[in-house]
Design brief:
heterotrimer; A alpha+beta; B mainly alpha; C alpha+beta; A: alpha+beta; Thiol Ester Dehydrase, Chain A; 3 helices; C: Thiol Ester Dehydrase, Chain A; 6 strands; 15% helix; PP-bd_ACP (chain B); Polyketide-8 synthase acyl carrier protein 1 (chain B); fatty acid metabolism (chain B); ACP (chain B); acyl carrier activity (chain B)
Chain lengths: 157, 84, 157
Amino acid sequence: MRLGHGELRALLPHRYPMLLLDRVDSVEPGVSLEAVKAVTGCEPCYRGIAEGQAPDRYAYPASLLIESFGQGAAVLWLLSRGPGTTGLPMFTAARDCVLLRPVYPGDVIRHRVRLEQVVHGAAFATGSSWVGTDQVAEFGSMMAVVRPADAVAERKR
Amino acid sequence: MSDRDQHMAELREIVAEVLELEPEEVADTADFVEEYEADSLRAIEILARIEKKYKVEIPQAELNEMRSLKAVHEVVARHAGWQD
Amino acid sequence: MTAAPAFSATTRPVDTYEAAAAPLPAIEWVEVSAGPRGGIGLRAGTTVDPTDVYLAGHFPELTVYPGVFTLETIGQAVTAAVGYCAGRLPHLHLLRSARFLAPLLAGDTLTVEASVGPVGEDQSFDVTARCVRGDGVHAATVRAVYRWPSADGGNAR
């Protein structure tokens, strides 16, 4: 199964510029998925860099790389939950994630995500991210929950 | 090592890893929340690891019971059919 | 192997944002104090701005500061506090654990309190951060290793 950008928009509540997946190339719902994210210099994270910075300053932010992988995990999980499930997938915990080398505009990131476990409304995913044959990140464990939007908005004491 | 000792050692390791402690820091009856600042995410993580390791399903209602290593052992023993 | 670098003077938050790709200016202020064994303590804060370009997409119907932006806030605070090493900024290398416990919504303030360092011989240092929301609720805990990448631009081990 392959998912285009429109199908990702239908699954995820994230929108531009925070929808950080372009396409899903293959997915076995509830088991594993391979997702693609192309990094471009047009992304707003490059708008604020001062002129004349060194090349290494154009590394794609780790926060967005982790979010992009997490969205792959969310898609994998949401597909296995079936239709009619709504809410905001919230990234709640991570363990042992290693960033191995920087990613630059022009790179195409491939996330390989495996869904390890779904327990009591929480999903645990693991996997890695690649640019070509170079591994750029390893994700030991990422945990997410889905919360109804009104429950998130409600201020708890 | 008796079954009980073996299970307690395994559970202590799981709890220590999730709470980011050394196994010897996890006392049998210490309250996770009061002693180790555990929270609901930690509780679900402990539960998830136990379900995976022992291939057992534990009802969510038991989460509130699982507040110490000893209590965790009792809950898991009940659902996994341990004769500890 | 050269001696482990010491932490240098702080830079202004705006300089940190302009120095490298970043999804948003993620700190408004930073305070640095001396820590044990040559390490430092830092405090930093920000306010969730729903008009931020990335936050407009996370999510359109409800602004929620993503967990990865809490990582971004910590990263920018660390960068501002520890400064450059041989012209390079510190990168997130290993996320040992992160937990996001309470949502941060539009207008919420986030305060980071972190212990940083000391610096190891491989130019890496530990960061342990506790994040608190404006109403005093514990919002996140993060344990990570940052490092100044080697001169070849890689971030490899």
